[in-house]
User: Fold this.
Amino acid sequence: MLQKRSWAEPFRIKMVESVRMTSPEERLRAMEEAGYNTFLLRSRDVYIDLLTDSGTSAMSDRQWAAMMLGDEAYAGSESFYRMEEAVQRRYGYKHVIPTHQGRGAEHIISKLLIRPGDVVPGNMYFTTTRLHQELAGARFVDVIIGEAHDPASLHPFKGDVDLAKLEQVLVENPGKVPYVSVAATVNMAGGQPISMANMRAVRELTSRHGVRVILDATRIAENAFFIQEREAGYEGRPIAEIVLEMCNLTDGCTMSAKKDPLANIGGFLALNDRELTELAQNLLVIYEGLHTYGGMSGRDMEAVAVGIDESLQDDHIRARVGQVRYLGEKMLGWGIPLVQPIGGHGIFLDAKAFLPHVPQAQYPAQALAAALYLDSGIRSMERGVVSAGRDPETGLDRMPRLELVRLTIPRRVYTQAHMDVTAETALAVFEGREQIRGLRMTYEPKHLRFFQARFEPV
Assistant:
C-alpha cells in the first residue's frame, strides 16, 4: 500500500538557460584566479550556482508581463503606486520608501535613527545590516537565544530573541537604543525562524521602554511557513495572514525584494510614522533617487508588486522550503554535518565539524566552499570568520561560534536532479575531507571583506 505520495513544484518550465560543466583543470584555474573566493568566480565557470538567493530567482510569466507596463516617469510613476499598494495590503505598513535593494533601506534607517554611541540589539547580526549600524555610530549587541549558536540544536525557533538579554540592554542603555533589529528568518543562524509568541513578547517589552522594532522582512514568507507548521494556533492559517500579523507587531521593516518577492533587483523601507517617513524620503533623494522610484526602474517596481503576491501563496512557499529540505535530508542521511533544523533558504554546512583539522584562523568555511567548487563546479559561500570581519575596536578577527558554508537555493530555478548532484558533491568532498587545507588571506578590503578578499592555500 502506498504510504507517502510524491509532491511536485506548483509551476512548469517555459524557458531554460544553458549552463556548462567545466573540467577539473578549468575549475582549478578559475579558483586560483578568483583567489579562492567564490564571489570572484565568473558565472560562466559555475555549473550550479548556490552562492545566494538574492536576485537569482526565476520570475513568473505574470512578472515578465507586468514589466511591460513599467511607467518610467521620473516623478509620480504609476509603477510605484502599484508597488506601494501591494506593500500596504500584504505587509500592513502605511508608508513605502523604495530603494535599489535591501541595503539601501538599511542605510536610510541607520542614518535616520542612529546617533553616535547608540546600541542596537538584534537576533544575530547580518553583515550589511551591522555595517550600516556601525558606520552610523552604533554598536550591535546580539540578543538571540543561545541555541542559535549551536548547529546541532533542534530548537524549532532558533531565531527567537532572549528576552532577558534584550531587557538588560534596554535597562543599561536608556535613551541609547534607537530600535531593536529583528530578522525573520535569521540568515546567519542557518535560515532559522522567530516565533510569533516571541515577536509579541519583544513588542510588549520594547513598548514598555518606548523603543521601536524594525523588522528585516527579507525572508518573512519562509518564517511564516515555519510558524504555520510549528506554532500552536497557526495550523491551517494562510501564509499571507501570518505575515501580516508579524508585520503588525513592528514599527517598520527593511526589505530586499531580491529574496521573498522574487524580483531580480529592488527593495524598500516601510514605516508607519509619517514624520519619520518624510525624513527618510529626504535622505532617499540624496542617496538613492526620488521618493517615487528610489533607485528602481518602473518595470522593476512592477515585478516586485506581482512578486509580493506570488511569494505569499501557500503552494509556492511549501514547494520552496520543500526543495531545501529535500537537499538537507539527503545530506543528513549520509552523516554530513549541517545546521539543524533545516532552514528556509539554504543548507548550512557546519565547517568546524566537517573540517575539524583546520583551525578557525585558517578559514575552514572558506576552504570548504572552495573544495565544493573544485569538485564539481557548485558555487556556495562562506558564513564564518571571514563574514564576521574584524572588531572595530581591537582590529582582531571576530571568531563566531558558527563557521558555516551556505548552499543557497534560488527560488523556482533548479530541479530535483540539481539537488541530487549537489548532495553527491557534498558527500564526495566529505569523504575526502582530510585532504582539504586551510587558507591564508592575501588581500583584505576595508569593509565587508567576504565579497572581495583573496586567499591562498596554507
Notes: The chain has a mean pLDDT of 97.
